[in-house]
């Protein structure tokens, strides 16, 4: 729980940090682009005045200074239109290869677009009636790049956050796997000694009381314990799959649950007549179905109800549905039912469904999920397996 809380706090911190960085970057970039845009307009006003001086030059005009001002503009695209709207000059305008055949029309269209967007300055010639030029200018490449930079930075920050969270979750999952594997193997080891002792005592009792009707049931329970220990020992390793009949595996679980479940609970099954063969570890897969059935029994809280197992297939997959008429799962808990440690019971470790998911998805390359659940009406778990 402490690890989960720590992960949650780190994720919240990373998200908040990303938001702060993004907002700060956008604000700073906004001010920078505004300042640069203002500077570029001022430069264009100076450039326009230089154009006026060039057009009205006399013997007192410092042409060297005027030409220097005009030629120093190497970054801002500028187009000059006469009073008839015809292009008389342009510079720093990048023309794509496809537009070079009719470059004048392209530049003219660009000038009209800039003029319509307010990126133009009109120069009137005082000594000439109705004579003027329009200086149309676009944002420089630096200004355009600066405008999109914060969004690129935001994308990089978000990518960093996603990678960091993924690394944290992977680390968490790896640590949890170590815990569950270690716990499972230690449980199998600890069960081994008392099971061996029980098997020996059962053999002694059979010799002493060969006609006792309870001894076969005791032997069955000891065998069951041996099977459980064997299942725990397989967690963490990759058991060799063997072609097995799903019909038989599910029937074994139904038989076992019928012997160990209250008569108030009715377990029914609907299987196809033909056997559905899947490559699997039958002992581990029985455990999955048992967990689902036991959870269904717990969901009925001793009040009785029904558990229904359905098996069917398509061309590529086999499907198993385990339905119950229990109390159902609340919507807020649906995302957490397979999370290790999650349980709604007063007693329990919350490992059953987590292990079931691991057995289905990692060992059998299948899928397990909640098909539907309604509070007060019941739940249906569904398993999909590739044939």
Q: What is this structure's SSE topology?
A:
Elements lengths: L1 H54 L7 H9 L6 E4 L5 E5 L11 H14 L3 E5 L7 E6 L3 H68 L5 H21 L7 E4 H15 L4 E6 L6 E4 L1 H18 L5 E9 L3 E8 L27 H12 L3 E8 L3 E9 L1
Parallel strand pairs: 6-8
Antiparallel strand pairs: 1-2, 1-4, 3-4, 5-7, 8-9, 9-11, 10-11
Helix pairs in contact: 1-2, 1-4, 4-5, 6-7, 7-8
Number of separate strands: 11
Main structural class: alpha+beta
Shape verdict: rod-shaped
Helix percent reads: 40-55%
The radius of gyration over CA amounts to 39 Å
Determine the number of helices (DSSP H or I, runs of at least 4 residues): 8
- Helices and strands, in order, run as HHEEHEEHHEHEEHEEHEE
Q: What value does the average pLDDT take? A: 82
Largest sheet: 5 strands, mixed
Poorly predicted ranges: none
Task: Provide a concise account of the structure shown.
The chain contains eight helices and eleven strands.
Core attributes:
387 residues, alpha+beta, five-stranded mixed beta sheet, four-stranded antiparallel beta sheet, 11 strands, 55% helix
Describe what this molecule looks like in 3D.
With 387 residues, this protein is α+β, with helices and mostly antiparallel strands. 55% of the residues lie in helices and 18% in strands. It has eight helices and eleven strands. The strands form three sheets. A five-stranded mixed β-sheet has the order 6-8-9-11-10. Strands 2-1-4-3 form a four-stranded antiparallel β-sheet, sandwiched between helices. α1 runs antiparallel to α2, α4 runs antiparallel to α5 (214-234) and α7 runs antiparallel to α8. The two termini are 38 Å apart. The model has no long low-confidence stretch (mean pLDDT 82).
């Amino acid at each position: 729980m402490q690890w989960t809380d720590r992960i949650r706090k780190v994720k919240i911190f990373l998200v908040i940090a990303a938001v702060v960085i993004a907002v700060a970057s956008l604000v700073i970039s906004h001010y920078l682009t505004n300042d640069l845009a203002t500077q570029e307009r001022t430069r264009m006003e100076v450039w326009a005045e230089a154009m006026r001086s060039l057009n009205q030059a006399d013997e007192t005009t410092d042409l060297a200074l005027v030409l220097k001002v005009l030629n120093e503009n190497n970054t801002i695209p500028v187009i000059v239109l006469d009073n008839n709207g015809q292009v008389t000059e342009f510079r720093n305008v990048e023309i794509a290869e496809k537009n070079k055949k009719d470059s004048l029309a392209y530049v003219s269209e660009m000038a009209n677009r800039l003029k319509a967007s307010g990126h133009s300055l009109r120069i009137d010639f005082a000594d000439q009636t109705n004579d003027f030029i329009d200086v149309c200018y676009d944002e420089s490449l630096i200004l355009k790049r600066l405008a999109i930079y914060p969004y690129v930075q935001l994308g990089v920050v978000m990518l960093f956050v996603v990678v960091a969270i993924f690394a944290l979750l992977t680390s968490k999952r790896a640590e949890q796997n170590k815990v569950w594997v270690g716990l499972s193997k230690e449980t199998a080891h600890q069960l081994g000694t008392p099971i061996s002792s029980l098997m020996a005592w059962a053999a002694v009792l059979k010799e002493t009381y060969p006609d006792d009707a309870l001894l076969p049931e005791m032997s069955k329970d000891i065998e069951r314990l041996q099977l459980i220990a064997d299942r725990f020992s397989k967690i963490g390793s990759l058991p060799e799959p063997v072609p097995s009949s799903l019909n038989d595996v599910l029937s074994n679980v139904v038989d076992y649950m019928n012997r160990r479940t209250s008569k108030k609970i009715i377990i029914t099954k609907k299987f196809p007549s033909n056997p559905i063969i899947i490559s699997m570890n039958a002992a581990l897969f029985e455990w999955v179905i048992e967990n689902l059935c036991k959870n269904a029994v717990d969901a009925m809280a001793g009040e009785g109800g029904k558990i229904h197992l359905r098996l069917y297939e398509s061309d590529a997959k086999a499907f198993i549905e385990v339905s119950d008429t229990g109390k159902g799962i609340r919507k807020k808990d649906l995302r957490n039912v397979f999370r290790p440690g999650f349980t709604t019971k007063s007693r329990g470790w919350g490992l059953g469904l987590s292990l079931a998911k691991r057995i289905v998805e990692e060992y059998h390359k299948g899928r397990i999920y909640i098909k539907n659940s309604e509070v007060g009406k019941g739940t249906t778990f569904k398993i999909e397996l590739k044939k």
